[in-house]
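HUMAN: Ready with one sample?

ASSISTANT:
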Amino acid sequence: MNAALGFARFVDRINRWIGLVVMYGVFILMGILLWSTISKTFFVPSLWTLEMAQFAMVAYYMLGGPYSILVGSNVRMDLFYGTWSLRRKATIDVITVLFLLFYLGVLLYGALGSTAYSLGYWGSAPVEFFIGLITGEESIGRMERSSTAWRPYIWPVKTIMIVGLCLMLLQALSELIKDLARAIGRDIPDAKL
């Protein structure tokens, strides 16, 4: 259990650091939208602003999600939960985090397939495609681009989604470990701010 709790602390430290850095991404988003407003009012409207704002929001949301789980700011029905003991909450959380892990696993598999498609792979085995890219047996094909006038490549934002989903999976595993420890009676300091 000590090794598992060490892993949980390591994941918590990573997601706390990334979350605190990504938190300032809202200023990047505000800057893009401010430039969009200024360019539409005084200059020629920029083609890239709306799509870049969407990409920035995806990065903000996906990379900030694990931090949200860490500090407990995710939405929860508190009708009964708020009155339960810490041990009972941990027992219920062990069950519910298993559903979260399954959901995030399905999302990650879908994101891998979508990212493989954006890199020019049209097969049905995205994991094997990425393994083949690493080993040199596969190559990148015709990359997907947005259908807008700006036409950016799509793979960077899809890669950010994969990284965010992996971090969320790790954070969900960390929460599972901490909840298991609490359920069996171990005293785990609460990381929630």
User: Anything to note?
Assistant: Helices lie at 2-22, 25-42, 49-71, 78-81, 86-118, 126-135, 155-183. The chain has a mean pLDDT of 91. Residues 2-76+84-183 form one domain. The two ends are 24 Å apart (CA to CA).
